[in-house]
UniProtKB/TrEMBL annotation:
One Pfam family in the UniProt entry: Phage_integrase
Superkingdom as given in the UniProt entry: Bacteria
PROSITE patterns according to UniProt: TYR_RECOMBINASE
Record's keyword annotation contains Oxidoreductase: no
A single MF term (Gene Ontology): DNA binding
Example of a GO biological process term: DNA recombination
Domain Tyr recombinase: 1-153
Species of provenance: Anaerobutyricum hallii
Protein name: Tyr recombinase domain-containing protein
This protein's UniProt keywords: DNA recombination
Gene3D superfamilies attached to this UniProt entry: Intergrase catalytic core
Length: 165
């Protein structure tokens, strides 16, 4: 378990579809824990999210990772890197998957989708836990097809109310 950068622990809202997926994941983990019995790997942390400080090793707290492997083992970020490399290997001829894509790219995609939907930049910054708004802007500084379409609508007057008096 890593201590978050910049005391950036936060609560984020999720939609009903994500909540349902998280509940199914938890059900799977509870079943897995029951199946593994004493061999299930419990995980603990020594970080207090309320005070943003490290606790003594005698005061460890149980933690339940969303991204755990079978048997309760933590899916380390390196596992996710390996998975993305496997995807690249299997999708060599797929132009939809960039060679630079990795799981962290989903964070960029999330920020871009929020930006395209009109969510104000400071809210995106807060959701991502960035201290500096410039960091957030780097996530959303690329032009997408949807943005170009919106620009065309404005230039062509497609979004202007023609009932002006």
């Amino acid at each position: 378990m890593y201590v978050p950068k910049y005391d950036s622990s936060r609560t984020v809202t999720v939609g009903n579809n994500v909540l349902a997926l998280l509940k199914r994941t938890l059900e799977f983990q509870l079943t897995d824990k029951e199946t593994c019995g004493e061999y299930y790997q419990e995980n603990y942390m020594n970080y207090d999210e309320e005070t943003h400080s490290l606790l003594s090793l005698n005061d460890l707290r149980p933690v339940h990772f969303v991204n755990a492997k079978q048997g309760g083992l933590l899916a380390h970020p390196r596992n996710m890197q390996h998975t993305s490399r496997s995807i690249h290997g299997k999708a060599k001829n797929c132009t939809l998957i960039s060679e630079e894509w990795d799981f962290h790219s989903l964070r960029h995609t999330h920020a871009t989708i929020l930006y395209e939907a009109g969510v104000p930049m400071p809210l995106i910054q807060k959701r991502l836990g960035h201290i500096n708004i410039q960091t957030t802007k780097r996530y959303t500084d690329h032009v997408t097809k949807k943005m170009l379409s919106m620009l065309d609508e404005v230039i062509n007057g497609d979004n202007i109310d023609n009932n002006l008096e």
